[in-house]
Design goal:
Length: 525
């Protein structure tokens, strides 16, 4: 269900329609979403993966079933009929490869796929779908529009009435894709919502926007309220368990969530359950304005990636006396360390994927079995990750090190060699560049073999470049390599003879002492 702003959410009072379900359900009072936007949240919910992992931008978001396993895919293979009924056509479209829409014959009369569906239309479609073949096991995902008081409560009551004959042998999950931020002041809700709709409510990582209602009713559940913090990414592996199905190996291995079925069945929460870290991202990997929050209840830290600023908040008891500065500093340091660790891990996955996509370019495939040189025109200090991937793909690499006339080699540049190269490749394969890498023969006369040209001019803009550097800083763990120059044959290209001589002297001396190169030469460029 899509959330709607209300001051009652801020006070954490249970909504009336949730009270109807509580006597037979387990209610999680500290449930958090993986993302404050519908597409990111639902896709994360269905895969158990952080929303941040599933795309580089909204534009390139897609599911590759060969690489990413989803709960609907698992259930479909186990004999379930899988359908979705979402009110918003954009959601229906983008998730169609994971959650096929309810068959057209069950749509309400006059409904069109490209228009919004009312909650009544969605419930009508569910009723007709269930009546079509009540014997087949089904997985139904119903995405209702925003909570709107008595109307929504009546719709939920009607839905429960439709499901009455299957509830005894079914798992029912009621939750929201995300919350909705309440005004930070006394502004009217309508005015605040209009402002957010203009900028995007999904930009905000306030507690009201990332906290979600979550109730689970299943055979064998022990009705109660649980304060143990949980995430929407826990649902995929938990539902497989609650449906008494054997675990799916790929879904379990890719999932960053936990199986909370034991909590539904009345089991105790362990210390590990209660003190876990919960991550929420408002944007994908390559998008500006990215924020990440990490919760270790009752504390929440929000990081603004563009300027590295942070916000710390106690979301457990806002009315209590403020914690000491020493306590806050310690908590902030712990949460920031965990956030950096998880970001490093996730960024490494994206960067490695980007480098791998370079190899998939058709022009790169022609080079297999040949010898090439990699010419770094950026002035940065290493192309080792790309070299390693090329060689793994059967392309013999002869590394060439190029320094622009206005730059000299620096120790800092060498220490950041691997990081800078990851940033370079990151930016080259950004949204504005389909291939990002050009195979050129312009410098073939200098090196004697085809060249793969890495050039900052191929990136779309300076802001992308700066963000790429910041993102790639976390990616070194993906490549277990020493971040130094380590070429067997290092060549320097410069247009100025004196500059070339100075560079040769400085770089050759440092690298030779380190034992990282066997020969160094200089040529005019």
């Amino acid at each position: 269900m899509r959330a709607r702003p209300s001051r009652r959410h801020a006070a954490r009072d249970p909504l009336p329609f949730l009270k109807m379900l509580e006597p037979d359900s387990v209610r999680f009072t500290n449930a958090f979403t993986s993302a404050p936007s519908t597409l990111m949240s639902v896709s994360a919910m269905m895969t158990g993966m952080h929303a941040y992992q599933l795309g580089r931008t909204f534009a390139d978001f897609s599911f590759d079933p060969d690489k990413i396993r989803s709960l609907p895919q698992v259930l479909s293979e186990r004999g379930y009929l899988v359908h979705q009924a979402a009110w918003y056509p954009y959601t229906r479209d983008r998730l169609r490869s994971v959650l096929p829409s309810i068959p057209r014959k069950h749509w309400s009369s006059g409904s069109r796929y490209r228009e919004d569906w009312s909650n009544d239309q969605i419930i009508d479609a569910i009723e007709r779908t269930l009546a079509d073949d009540a014997r087949s096991p089904r997985f139904l995902f119903a995405h209702l529009n925003m909570y709107s008081g008595q109307e929504t409560e009546a719709q939920v009551q009607r839905l429960l009435w439709i499901l009455r004959n299957v509830l005894t042998n079914s798992v029912l999950v009621v939750c929201s894709d995300h919350g909705f931020p309440v005004p930070p002041d006394d502004r009217p809700i309508a005015e605040w919502r209009a402002e957010l709709d203009h900028h995007g409510h999904d930009l905000v990582l306030s507690s009201e926007n990332i906290r979600i209602p979550l109730l689970i009713r299943s055979p064998g559940c022990v009705p109660r309220s649980i304060d143990c913090p949980v995430s929407s990414i826990d649902l995929a592996v938990s539902l497989v368990d609650l449906l008494s199905l054997d675990p799916d190996a790929q879904l379990s291995s890719q999932s960053r969530g936990r199986n909370i079925a034991h909590l539904v069945r009345g089991g105790p929460a362990s210390a590990e359950d209660s003190q876990r870290y919960l991550r929420t991202d408002n944007r994908y990997f390559l998008q500006p304005g990215r924020l990440t929050s990490i919760v270790k209840y009752p504390w929440k830290l929000v990081l603004h990636h563009d300027d590295e600023s942070t916000e710390l908040e106690n979301i457990g008891d806002r009315k209590s006396l403020a914690a000491s500065a020493r306590t806050k500093n310690a908590v902030a340091a712990e949460l920031r360390a965990e956030l950096d660790r998880s970001t490093e891990e996730l960024d490494a996955i994206h960067v490695k994927s980007m480098l791998t996509s370079v190899l998939a370019d058709r022009r790169m495939r022609r080079l297999r079995g040949k010898s090439v040189a990699i010419v770094d025109r950026s002035g940065w200090r290493s192309i080792e990750p790309l070299r390693a991937l090329l060689e793994a793909a059967g392309v013999e690499c002869r590394a060439v090190y190029s320094v622009p006339p206005d730059q000299g080699a620096s120790a800092e540049g060498e220490r950041q060699a691997l990081v800078d190269t990851l940033a370079l490749c990151d930016a080259l394969i950004d949204v504005g560049s389909k291939s990002g890498v050009r195979v050129t023969t312009r410098l073939a006369a200098h090196v004697g073999v085809p060249c793969i040209r890495l050039d900052p001019s191929l990136a779309r803009g300076a802001s992308d470049w700066v963000r790429a550097v910041r993102r790639a800083r976390m990616a070194m763990a993906a490549y277990q390599a020493d971040p130094r120059i380590a070429f067997e044959d290092l060549r320097l290209f410069a247009s100025d003879r004196e500059l070339r001589r100075r560079l040769l002297s400085r770089v050759a001396g440092r690298l030779s002492r380190a034992g990282t190169v066997t020969s160094v030469s200089a040529e005019l460029h």
